[in-house]
Amino acid sequence: MGDSGTARTSAGESCCSCGQLRRGALPAIGVAGAIGIPESSHSQPPARVVRLRGGRFRTGVGKSPLPQDGESPAREVNVRPFAIDPLAVTNDWFGKFALATGYRTEAERHGWSLVFAAFVPDGAKALASDDGPSWWRRVEGACWKHPEGPQSDLSGRLDHPAVHVSWNDAVAFAAWAGGRLPTEAEWEFAATGGLAGAIYPWGAKEPDDAAFTPCNIWQGDFPMRNTAADGYLSTAPTDAFAPNGHGLFNMVGNTWEWCADAFRVRSLARAAKERNARAHAADERLLKGGSYLCHRSYCYRYRIAARTGVSADSSTGHVGFRLVFDA
Asked: What region, left, alpha or beta, does residue 36 occupy, with left being phi > 0 and alpha being psi -120 to 50 degrees?
């Protein structure tokens, strides 16, 4: 993999630290009905959904390696029964939505989205991100159907997760499909696969750079070199790798997944209050699961409890989503 920037990062920095890039640039999309998309266009969830009984569940962690993210404190919650798609929303399914409704994502309406620097094609119109890490580029024409810009397409990637999709876009899709985005508690409950205290969907064993690669994350020296020991430089098919105990695929790695929640830090420390004020002002929404850009050396967020937040209108090449349905 070629040189994608020279910045060295700490374990507390996030691969998703892309800033509030477009806040106020477009009117808020809101729910699907506000832009002419019939709600619950599909009355039944896909036959593949996994139905979970819910129950009492311990979310978060007692002691977090990234305290600024609000993983702590752990707390008991009651999760009601729900159904969840074992797969993230694919390019194929998102394409059906766009064709049926004429929907244009925020990236399409803005005319650009964020692409990892090493993936930018030669000749693409790209600028360094104004307020984000050096490995992001603002690429003109990048969107869900052109993931690296106009020179790219979805050939061979129809079964990959749809990316360059904002939280607002995901909410619109969910309304059309008759589902919704999961809450953080639902997402964590599902990701554990029924393993009490699980750190990862498969248990507690830490992925490495060679022998044990159970999910699609970075291997090597970020952001300079990715060995792709797991088989992928960028996104993988939504059913790649082994499922967890509930039969769910890629609950960590591959792409970050939008949740319904606003992003907030639970601690009452002054720093957390200040972070919450910024998140509220920017309308930050919660992301879970990490992505193909995560590595323990700088962004240890492919754990179940890990979390981050960006503005609801942000889109990048490593953020997607999956749906849940009321039981």
From this structure: left
* C-alpha distances out from residue 228 to 166, 211, 244, 277, 300, Å: 27, 12, 22, 39, 18
- Rounded (to 5) percent helix, strand, coil in the chain: 15, 20, 60
The answer to whether 39 and 33 are in contact (CB under 8 A) is yes
Peptide bond into 81 cis (omega under 30): no
Label residues 158-174 b or e (16+ Cβ within 10 Å = b). ebbbbbbbbbbbbbbbb
- What is the rounded CA–CA span in Å between residue 110 and residue 37? 20
The whole-model pTM stands at 0.89
The separation between CA 314 and the C-alpha centre of its own chain, rounded to angstroms, equals 11
* Backbone angles phi and psi of 172, in degrees to 5: -65, -45
Contacts (Cβ under 8 Å, ≥6 apart) of 152: 121, 146
* pLDDT cut 90: percent of the chain above it: 69
- Token pair in block for residue 208: 């490495």
Domains of the chain: 49-101+161-326 (3.90.1580.10)
3-state secondary structure of 189: helix
- Going through 38-119 in order, the beta strands assigned E by DSSP cover 50-52, 55-59, 75-79, 82-84, 112-116
pLDDT in tens, 127-174: 997 767 889 999 999 999 999 999 999 999 999 999 999 999 999 999
Cα→Cα distances 57→17, 195, 319, Å: 29, 11, 26
Say which amino acid occupies 108.
Answer: E
